[in-house]
Design the sequence.
């Protein structure tokens, strides 16, 4: 299986695809099939991810990108409203900037 | 995913700042999971401490187990987890039911617990806690979520409602959690509470219906301080930074 070198820079569409893959692994394919995942999809409202699922999602980012991206630290600086309104596009931008 | 085997059962564990000299272990409450700490409280503590969080049995991503929800079994689980992680003693903090587990841990395994922080532990003799279990139904869950649940759950959609419903159904109808909790009703009047010798911090919401339980504990524990934080029973979700900072100061000094 091909593994991505952590030094390889991904463009936003590649990051989006990777995030979509992580979301599918966390919430299950049967749910993902029923919804359209876009850059505008919000984590809590559209994707209906609860906090333990966001923990799993964060772990996947940590495992994939390593020290390069402090995703949990970034999330922990957000207040509740920001977290509730967090969408996929914001995450993709954040990861793109960190690389 | 960090799921480890403890006594042949799968336990979901998360650790931060692994190299630190001292460890703070965080225990979540009933029907919750380690995410109550993961995003805010744990990172504050991880500035100084190795932080360990775990999902209780049948909660979060830990294995479903049909029995052993009494405080002896829950502290046996925690003791085995400490052994597995090769942690001889830790600072311990628990929220709600996790607070009861932490109190029991300090009483049963004093050598394994340095300082103790108890957040919003309810008095198990309070009927309100058991009423929730007795009156549970799908309609109850929907009503509860709409009116009382923490702000993170207030946006619950269909999939989350189903997921939570399955968890409540499992815990209430397929495990011994209900009968095990009823057997713990005299825990606050047990002599062992008075024998807790660790320095203890009690953190309660100023408008919580559990605050009386905090005041009861304050009278019984020897080296204890009770602090009220603005909020109700959901205070770790409402005021994570305050709760994190208070625990950080308490464990550091």
Sequence:
């Amino acid at each position: 299986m091909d593994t991505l070198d952590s030094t390889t820079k991904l463009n936003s569409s590649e990051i989006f695809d990777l995030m979509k893959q992580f979301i599918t692994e966390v919430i299950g394919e049967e749910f993902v099939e029923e919804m359209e995942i876009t850059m505008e999809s919000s984590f809590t409202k559209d994707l209906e991810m609860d906090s333990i699922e966001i923990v799993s999602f964060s772990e996947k980012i940590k495992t994939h990108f390593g020290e390069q991206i402090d995703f949990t630290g970034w999330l922990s600086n957000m207040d509740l409203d920001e977290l509730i309104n967090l969408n996929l596009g914001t995450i993709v931008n954040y990861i793109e900037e960190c690389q | 995913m960090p799921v480890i085997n403890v006594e042949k059962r799968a336990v979901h564990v998360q650790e931060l700042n692994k190299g630190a000299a001292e460890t703070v272990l965080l225990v979540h409450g009933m029907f919750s999971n380690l995410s109550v700490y993961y995003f805010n409280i744990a990172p504050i503590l991880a500035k100084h401490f190795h932080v360990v969080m775990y999902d209780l049995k049948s909660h979060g991503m830990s294995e479903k187990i049909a029995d052993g929800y009494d405080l002896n079994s829950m502290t046996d689980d925690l003791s085995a987890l400490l052994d597995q992680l090769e942690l001889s003693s830790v600072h311990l903090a628990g929220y709600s039911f996790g607070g009861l587990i932490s109190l029991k841990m300090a009483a049963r395994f004093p050598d394994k617990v340095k300082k103790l922080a108890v957040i919003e532990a309810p008095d198990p003799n309070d009927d309100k806690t058991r009423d929730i279990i007795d009156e549970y139904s799908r309609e109850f869950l929907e009503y509860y979520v709409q009116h009382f649940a923490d702000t993170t759950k207030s946006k619950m959609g269909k999939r989350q409602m189903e997921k939570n419903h399955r968890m409540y159904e499992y815990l209430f109808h397929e495990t011994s959690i209900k009968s095990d909790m009823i057997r713990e009703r005299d825990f606050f009047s047990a002599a062992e509470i008075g024998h807790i010798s660790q320095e203890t911090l009690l953190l309660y919401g100023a408008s919580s219906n559990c605050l009386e339980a905090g005041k009861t504990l304050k009278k019984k524990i020897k080296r204890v301080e009770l602090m009220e934080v603005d909020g109700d029973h959901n205070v770790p979700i409402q005021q994570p930074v305050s709760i994190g900072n208070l625990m950080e100061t308490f464990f550091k000094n």
Observations:
- The radius of gyration of chain B is 17 Å.
- The domain at 3-125+186-252 of chain B is CATH 3.40.50.1820 (Rossmann fold).
- Chain B touches chain A at residues 1-2, 14, 33-36, 38-40, 43, 55, 60-61, 151-153, 155-160, 163 (CB under 8 Å).
- Residues 32 and 142 of chain B are 17 Å apart (CA to CA).
